Structures are given as structure tokens and as C-alpha cells.
Write a sequence for this structure.
């Protein structure tokens, strides 16, 4: 089973609307990270939130973390067509020595102009 | 702009051939990783390295091997390619993944015919 599972698997919205993606995980974590992947390309790191943080902002991105529910959400405000991509959450599990990220299955976001 | 480079970008090769996927980074990062990703699916960690002469197998069993003779170079080799190896291979590095996250290359899309 996946450490990180995103919901929904696919999301289609109109330009200007907000997009919310959710991620659930199973074990204790050091941090949770969100990445973006354009079709057929590598991933781009968006934001990292530590286990002792509850909310973080970066530009139009807002990430929340609820360690009691083992879940996180990524909100993209005022979406643009250029935001169309797959978004992955990744967890840095607390019990692993060193640091290896485990990725979820991703949410495919389509922003229609 | 990412300073991690993967070559080739695309590779179509016959069954039984030996191949090496190249990954180089110019950031001086100690930690490097190889992930395998099928289209539209999650990433699976197949190898990682925390420094020169240090390599470990990841969570997904893989017939590939890696080496880390220089900090900047982390090549992946398949001794005998098979159609089941068809996938996208993503290389990443990090200065300190618990603080900064990963930097990914653009990936190598491998097709074995």
C-alpha cells in the first residue's frame, strides 16, 4: 500500500478557480513535500512542511498538515492554464534512517482556459 | 533551472542489450536517487546513494545496478534489457532532503522492444 495517497486522482477546473488536492499517509513523518510534474518531465519541488508545522504558504500555494489525521492538502488559488500538471505528495518517514521520500500516485490537474 | 542532467532523454533498444542511463549534477549534493515511473503512476525508489562509494537498493526490486565513484555522477546500468524494463527513469539529488527537498532531472524514457 502507498505511504502517500492523493485524492482526487483527477481534477478539472476553470481558470481562476481554486484547486484543492488531498494526501493521506500511514506512518509518522519528519516532513511532507509537494511536487509538480508536467507531462513526461521530471518533478519540481513546490513546498516542504515539517511535522511540527500546520500551515505553509508560497505564492498562490497553501499547504496544510494534520498529523493527527495523517493528511495534508494543497490549495492552488486563482488557477491558471499553466498550472495544468500532475501533483504528487511525498513523505519523509520518521522511522527510516537517512532520508528517502515515498511518493503517492498523484493528482492530475487540468485547468481549462 | 535544475542543475541535474539525464541522458539520453529517450532510448529505444532491443531485448538483451546492455544500457547505461547517465545522471550528473553540478550542485555538489551528496544524496542521489533513482526512481522508476510508469506513465500516470507513482514513483518507485529503486536505488539511492548518500555519498561516494555508497549505494543502496530502494523499495522496488530492480535488476538494474548503480555506481557512485564521483559525487556528481550516478549512472544506472541494465546488463540485459527486457520489455518489462520499459518505463521512465528519474534521477534526483538533494543537499538535505529534510530541509530542501529533491531536485529532479528531466528523466529518461526507456522502451525495450
Amino acid at each position: 500500500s502507498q505511504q502517500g495517497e492523493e485524492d482526487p486522482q483527477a481534477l478539472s477546473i476553470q481558470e481562476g478557480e481554486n484547486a484543492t488536492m488531498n494526501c493521506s499517509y500511514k506512518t509518522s513523518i519528519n516532513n511532507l513535500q509537494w511536487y509538480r510534474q508536467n507531462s513526461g518531465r521530471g518533478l519540481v519541488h513546490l513546498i516542504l512542511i515539517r511535522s511540527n508545522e500546520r500551515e505553509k504558504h508560497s505564492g498562490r500555494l497553501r499547504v496544510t498538515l494534520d498529523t493527527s489525521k495523517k493528511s495534508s492538502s494543497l490549495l492552488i488559488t486563482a488557477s491558471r492554464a499553466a498550472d495544468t500538471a500532475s501533483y504528487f505528495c511525498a513523505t519523509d518517514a520518521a522511522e527510516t534512517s537517512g532520508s528517502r521520500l515515498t511518493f503517492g500516485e498523484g493528482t492530475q490537474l487540468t485547468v481549462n482556459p | 533551472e535544475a542543475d541535474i542532467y539525464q541522458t539520453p532523454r529517450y532510448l529505444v533498444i532491443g531485448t538483451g542489450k546492455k544500457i547505461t542511463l547517465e545522471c550528473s549534477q553540478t550542485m555538489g549534493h551528496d544524496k542521489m536517487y533513482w526512481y522508476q515511473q510508469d506513465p500516470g503512476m507513482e514513483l518507485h525508489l529503486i536505488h539511492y546513494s548518500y555519498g561516494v562509494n555508497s549505494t543502496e537498493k530502494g523499495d522496488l526490486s530492480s535488476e538494474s545496478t548503480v555506481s557512485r565513484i564521483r559525487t556528481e555522477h550516478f549512472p544506472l546500468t541494465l546488463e540485459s534489457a527486457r520489455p518489462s524494463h520499459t518505463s521512465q527513469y528519474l534521477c534526483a539529488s538533494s543537499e538535505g532532503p529534510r530541509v530542501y527537498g529533491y531536485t529532479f532531472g528531466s528523466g529518461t524514457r526507456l522502451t525495450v522492444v
